[in-house]
Amino acid sequence: MKTASLKEIKVELENAPPEVLLELCLKLTKFKKENKELLTYLLFEESNEPIYVNGVKETLNELFITVNKTNLYFAKKTIRKIVRTANRYIKYSNIKTTEPDILIHICEKINDLNLNLKNNTALHNVYLSQVKKIKKAVNGMHEDEQYDYLKIIKKLE
After folding, report:
1. What's 29-82 look like in SS3?
2. Pick from 67, 40, 41, 59: which is nearest to 105 by CA?
3. Of 55, 69, 80, nearest to 112 (Cα)?
4. Where are the domains of the chain?
5. Cα–Cα distance, 122 to 72 (Å, whole number)
6. Nearest to 82 by CA among 113, 52, 51
7. Pick from 145, 143, 39, 66: which is nearest to 101 by CA?
8. Residue 65 CA to chain centroid, in angstroms?
C-alpha cells in the first residue's frame, strides 16, 4: 500500500463531510495511544498551557518515584523512560516555553535523586543531553524570555 502525501490527505479531508471527519478521528484514537494523547491535548489542554505543563510535571514526578537509586543500571533505564515520556508530551505543544520548562524539571529531579552522575557515564550523558536540549530551545526564544532560562541553565551545569 502506498501512503498518500500530506497534500493529498489535506485535499481529501477538506472535501469530506463532518460525520466522516468525526469517524476518522475516532478511528485514529483507537489505534495508537499517542494519537489519543495528542487529540486530548488539542481538545482539552491546548487553551491552558500552564495547567498542561504542571500535569506533565506531576506525571513525571510519579515516574521519578519509581527510580531505583541502589542500582545505577536500573536508574539509567528508568530515567531514559522518563525522558522519552517527556519528549512525547513536549512534541504535542507548539509553545516555545513548554520544552525548556519540562526539561528543566527533569534535570532538577535528576539532581534531587543524588545519584553520582560522574561515576556513570551513561547517566551523565543523559543529563548533559537534556541540558543541551534546554539550551537549544532557549536559543530559539525572544531575548527577554531567554534571561530567566539562562540563569537556570547555569545552575544546572
Report:
1. HHHCHHHHHHHHHHHHHCCCHHHHHHHHHHHHHHHHHCCCCCCHHHHHHHHHHH
2. 59
3. 69
4. 49-156
5. 10
6. 113
7. 145
8. 18
Q: Say what the pTM is.
A: 0.86
Cα separations in angstroms, 61 against 43, 64, 82, 83, 105: 24, 5, 9, 12, 9
Q: Smallest Cα–Cα separation from 110: which of 98, 86, 121, 126?
A: 126
pLDDT tens string, the chain, 157 residues long: the values are: 788 888 888 888 888 898 988 898 888 888 888 888 888 898 888 899 999 999 999 999 999 999 998 888 899 999 999 999 999 999 999 898 999 999 999 999 999 988 888 888 999 999 999 999 999 999 988 888 888 888 888 888 7
Residue identified by cell 513548554 is 98
Quick one: CA torsion of 135, 46, 51, 155, rounded to 10 degrees?
0
CA 143, CA 139: separation in Å to the nearest integer?
8
> Are 130 and 106 within 8 A, CB to CB?
yes
Closest CA to 82 of 52, 120, 29, 127: 127
What is the number of residues in the chain?
Answer: 157
